[in-house]
Amino acid sequence: MNLNLVRALCTASALALAAATGPAMAGPEDDTLRAAMAEEILNLDYNYTTKREYIILAQLTDATLFELDPATQEFRPSIATGYEWVNDLTLDLTLRDDVKFHDGTTLTPEDVAYTYNWIADERSESNANGVVARWLDKAEVTGPNTLRFKLKSVYPLVLRDMANRVMLRKAGTYGEGDAINRDAMANSLIATGPYKVSSFEPGTELVLERNEDFFGEKPAIKTIVVRNIPDIGTQQAELMSGGIDWIFKVPLDLAESLGQTPMATHLSGPDLRVGFMVLDAGGYTDPDGPLTNVLVRRAINHALNTPEMAEHLIGGSAEAIHAACHPAQFGCDQSVARYAYDPEKAKALLAEAGYPDGFPMEVWAYRDKAASEAIAADLTAVGIDVNLRYVKLESLNQARAAREIPAYFGTWGSGGTADTAAIARIHFDVESDRNMSGDEELAGLVLSAEQTADQEKRKEIYSEALGRIADQAYWAPLFSYSANYLVSPQLEFPLDPDGLPRLQNATWK
């Protein structure tokens, strides 16, 4: 079907549904920002969740020890006013004395120490445990507004984890002994952030009210309502009828189409998510398979028209990438080997590798079907007989864990963290099934970067590691992603360079 026709039909359908849904409800008139999310919101405690939607909500309801400036990637004081490295394994923090939980009680160093020690304890089963337990030995109170963190080993990303991953809870929140309650904050969150929970119907609606006792700069908008609306068409209709002010994860075509109407504004900004192909260089699926040959892997890189994919299939601010990280991330060296789109070069490399007539290859994918099909088409064009297996993410994860996947198209958002560590370790750690390189020396390099406090040294290590990945073509890097939003024309919504939506920064025009 013609793309312009699709756009016209979608817009017409949304306009018709908008007309049927009644008069405007959202907006500055009642100082209530109404947002739509497709993913069900079932748990308000980010210590026990992971998805992007929960990160967005945690930014609203929680405050952390430090905060990260999205423009400079520098750490700023938040609940912690200062810190001092006593030595490589000892970190002292000083806290504000005016931070209140949403129930009116004052946050203490005991609360902070409890939270960190609990999350680091394997009994917590927290989604943040794998991050914190990696480095924390113990947190202990040292004074009325001070505490000390003792580390297991040198770990240069402590402040990053304190800024991004751990949400502070009152001492004793999750119980103890046989009375552990990991869901204590799932539905009735008591936190310290700029908004507090007014009401919550899991999977339906969350109402947040501005926290007038918030220690930091208070948000401009008084109330935020987050509604679970799974269908993108219904979201758009609600936006155009005035029932919704903000939608994210909007397909580019629809965002551009509806953004041309007077009832919606299309915003497009950067996203730290990147797309890539992982190749079985280690021979896990076939010890003597074609992908164990570096010439074949380089040929695959040359075969992919990543600039066209970025521009036409992802769109917005998406760009082709050539390193195994996002260009905005700390340590993402852009001087590594590039493989320009060159089908003839790809064919020549395949012939040199002993595959002049190509070979059959299974490629798995779970998202962005158009991009998946473009990858398959480009590889087919140079003689590789691709069997594209488009499956659900759970199926891909299971098959990858069983070492049944020779190549797959994956993506990674780094949790909004602009540091190469956020993508490197999980994909190249020796124990990760995502690591299909079979290169133990590379895994050692990646690990050593996280055991080095010297930031310049970390850059050097990541440069070496990324250079090795590129030279050996363990990946075929594809493109960065673009974040597309549809918002009410009355809403001013700033976009940050790390791609994380911060609704607390929204204002009315």
From TrEMBL:
One of its GO terms (cellular component) is outer membrane-bounded periplasmic space. One of its GO terms (biological process) is peptide transport. Belongs to the bacterial solute-binding protein 5 family. It comes from the Bacteria. Pfam families: SBP_bac_5. GO terms for molecular function: peptide transmembrane transporter activity. This is ABC transporter substrate-binding protein. Residues 1-26 form the signal peptide. The keyword Signal applies. The keyword Signal applies. It is found in: Periplasm. Keywords: Signal. InterPro entries: Peptide/Ni-bd, SBP_5, SBP_5_CS, SBP_5_dom. Its main location: periplasm. Residues 74-418 form the Solute-binding protein family domain.
